[in-house]
Specification:
This protein is α/β, with parallel strands linked by helices. The protein has one domain (3-265): 4-Layer Sandwich (Purple Acid Phosphatase, chain A, domain 2). The protein has helices at residues 31-50, 76-87, 105-111, 145-154, 157-164, 168-187, 190-207; strands spanning 7-11, 17-20, 53-56, 91-95, 114-116, 119-124, 130-135, 213-216, 223-227, 230-234, 243-248, 251-258, 262-265. The strands form 2 sheets. A 7-stranded mixed β-sheet has the order 5-4-3-2-11-12-13, with helices on one face. α1 runs parallel beside α2 (76-87).
């Protein structure tokens, strides 16, 4: 694996990096979705004083599509929280997931977030340097051929142009229906997804000895495992676990976020 092929971010020895993912905001119109949104906003506010870098590892939104001049009203409060965090000086990265890979320049420019379509390599400038590869984690490893084909189709530029012709209200309604079907499918494969993700991380670490840690998301299961050639973590989700990863000079912590705000180490 060529590490130079990944988008890179340099991290100073004493900087604090936070990772979180899979809030799936707007997945349903109910009180639980509103509570998740409030938790995410509170978390973003807390990070203004507790983080130097934030990496969102995909699927913050259950669906996001980039129109040239339209930002979805349903996500404005969370987007305002991200913008405020970026303006406070925290460097924000957004690694695309399988529900929000249609993010684009309008989102990035408006909020001050740097977008990454696939993977981000963070290099902490210690002696020796520590290298962490972070990505959402969908469509990796062996198997799940059907999804891999679908992923390529959904990222096809022609299909994206055609979808943009739909009125945003219709587009989002169609996306919510599709997302519910997808969740039912993946729920039946949860145990296999968790192990496949861990195996993917193990193989990535074994194939590139320069890597120290691999961080994935997508499975909704927070994890921290030590393999022969490095460390694997999964950021979990904000549907059930409200989990996130903190990486500081002291190492990695897998934490959960209570609402009202109160953090505790879970691993």
């Amino acid at each position: 694996m060529d590490l130079h092929a990944h988008q890179q971010e340099i991290v100073e020895p004493d900087e604090r990096v936070h990772f979180f993912s899979d809030a799936h905001l707007d997945s349903e119109k109910d009180s639980r979705t509103l509570e998740r949104e409030q938790r995410v906003i509170a978390f973003l506010e807390q990070l203004r004083t507790e983080a130097d870098v934030l990496v969102i590892l995909g699927d913050l939104f259950d669906f996001y599509f980039e129109y040239k001049t339209v930002l979805p009203a349903r996500h404005l409060r969370v987007m305002a929280g991200i913008e405020a965090l970026a303006r406070s000086g925290v460097r924000c990265w957004y690694v695309a997931g399988n529900h929000d890979f249609w993010l684009g320049e309008l989102f990035s420019r408006t909020l001050g977030v740097r977008l990454v379509p696939d993977s981000l390599l963070l290099i902490r400038e210690t002696d020796p340097p520590l290298r962490v590869l972070a990505l959402h984690g969908d469509g990796l490893g062996e198997g799940d051929t059907g999804y891999k084909i679908l992923k390529k189709c959904l990222r096809n530029r022609l299909l994206i142009r055609l979808f943009r012709l739909l009125h945003p209200d219709w587009g989002y309604a169609l996306a919510r229906f599709t997302s519910r079907t997808s969740r039912k499918y993946t729920a039946n494969r949860q145990a296999a997804r968790v192990e496949a993700s861990a195996d993917t991380a193990r193989k990535l670490l074994a194939s590139c000895r320069e890597l120290d840690t691999v961080i994935l998301a997508h499975t909704h299961q927070p994890e921290k495992r030590e393999f022969e050639h490095g460390l694997y973590l999964n950021s979990g989700d904000w549907c059930t676990h409200f989990s996130y990863i903190k990486w500081s000079a002291a190492g990695f912590e897998l934490k959960s976020f209570d609402y009202p705000p109160k953090s505790k180490t879970v691993a």
